[in-house]
Amino acid sequence: MKKIIFTISFLLLFLIKNISAQNISLTFGGGYLYSDFDNTKLPYWENGYLFSFSSDYKITDHISIFFSSSYQKHFFDKNLVYLNSITVAGYRYSINGENSSVIELSIGSKLYATS
To answer: How many domains does the chain have?
Structure first.
């Protein structure tokens, strides 16, 4: 998926001259993902990063449609896993896990309330 996003981004950079003359806008973004362990996700995934892309096509002065996508990555940390009942009973255990990835794709429309 990363290769697809980078390929599309690379191609779009060369098409910007043609796109800028039309009613199309492009947005690229990214950043660091931080979340409070107690409220938003399971505690054994650490913070991660995000890449996003969106495009917007203005149909009329009052209506546009958009496409949005993003890729998120959170890192697994086995040291953050704590199993209370197993620890009390004295059992030995091993913990395995994988990094978590999220791919979001969405389409929609916008209505501009101007007079």
So the answer is: 1
